[in-house]
Amino acid sequence: MEQRYDCLIVGAGMAGAVAARELAEQGGQKVLVLERRNHVGGNMYDRFDERGVLIHQYGPHIFHTNSKRVFDYLSRFTRWRLYEHQVVANIPDGEGRLEYPVPFNLVSLRTAFPPEQAEKLEEKLVAAYGREKKVTILQLRQAPDPELAALADYVYDHVFVRYTMKQWGQTPEEIDPATTARVPVFLSEDCRYFQDEYQGMPLEGYTPLFLSLLDHPNITVELNTDAGQRLRLEGEQVLLDGEAFSGTVIYTGAADELFACRYGRLPYRTLDFAFESYPVDFWQSHGTVNYTVDRDYTRITEFKYLTGQDLPGTTTIMKEYSRAYTGAAGEVPYYAVINGESNALYARYKALADRIPNFHLLGRLAEYKYYNMDAIAARALELCDSLLK
Ligand SMILES: Cc1cc2nc3c(=O)[nH]c(=O)nc-3n(C[C@H](O)[C@H](O)[C@H](O)COP(=O)(O)OP(=O)(O)OC[C@H]3O[C@@H](n4cnc5c(N)ncnc54)[C@H](O)[C@@H]3O)c2cc1C
Q: Model pTM?
């Protein structure tokens, strides 16, 4: 039987959608995209809740990149709203609470310490490292001046360690010293969370961006379809609906699931999201507030800051709780727990996939890596460049 499709893509997230568009448009290929969820967009999916607030179902997503190629590419499918994300840490302070920007910067310094002490520290920091520079807490700890070393300890305690313990379920001893060493102090008044050249939010939201990306006569998207229902591996042969399939396969799902977790599950962290609505214009001070010292949740996001939605008298916030992923039905593997052991396990799955001709692992799940959306869009474009050469 003649093959109806030249290419099969598993997953309609950023990796799958960009690859589908490129192969369909530049390569003239007939592409079938299988998506197990009832929507496209992967974890970037957004929708209106019952109060009409545009929310991000799988956690807050802000676009930022230094890649002109990615920005120009995505700009074909959306207009942008200029938005520069700001995050503050919210910590207990005596009877009350204190908020200051993270990454910890000069504004944080002036908020956290009494004016005279802050001024003295700022002078010492700027003299030692210069303005607009990022200095790590490792560098500060190694500073000959004990006051700078003490500042490193303050930032470690109030911004980093407990947040990281919540996020990764670790004790302080288990936290990779290399990660600790990289915690930055930004000697600047720039309170933006990202400093990338291009920053913003899709004007109409992410879901319309994805619908536009996938809207091409050569692309067929089937939702509510787990790849396992259609795709089977027999040794190194791919079967689509029981027939040998010799076209390109781009798989963006989890690498262990592809092989029925035969060597064991790859470790991930999952998140529980608690959405709450309030009859006010705005509920908190910034788009995202990190609870870096106390509380069970890691952070709270208020979507209207991100989307700029003009909707007086109502708002929706989302609390994030992090825990170990177990693979139970309904759980989403969000963050790969990367260490020597899990990388070695991943390498065994990758070796199996590499034996299959024309078969490519692409994306944050399939490659067992953390990618920002711009990085994964860039990787999808590069993979297609090489496939279409
Ligand atoms: C909480 C959170 C916040 C983030 N915030 C940002 C941010 O602010 N800015 C940023 O740039 N990046 C952010 N990211 C990263 C961003 O989400 C990823 O870069 C992006 O989603 C990766 O796209 P992907 O296609 O690789 O994966 P996904 O978005 O996970 O898409 C994979 C798709 O494949 C489908 N799938 C999996 N297995 C199968 C199967 N067997 N059959 C059919 N379909 C299947 C899944 O349902 C999913 O739709 C964030 C990530 C998280 C977890």
A: 0.96
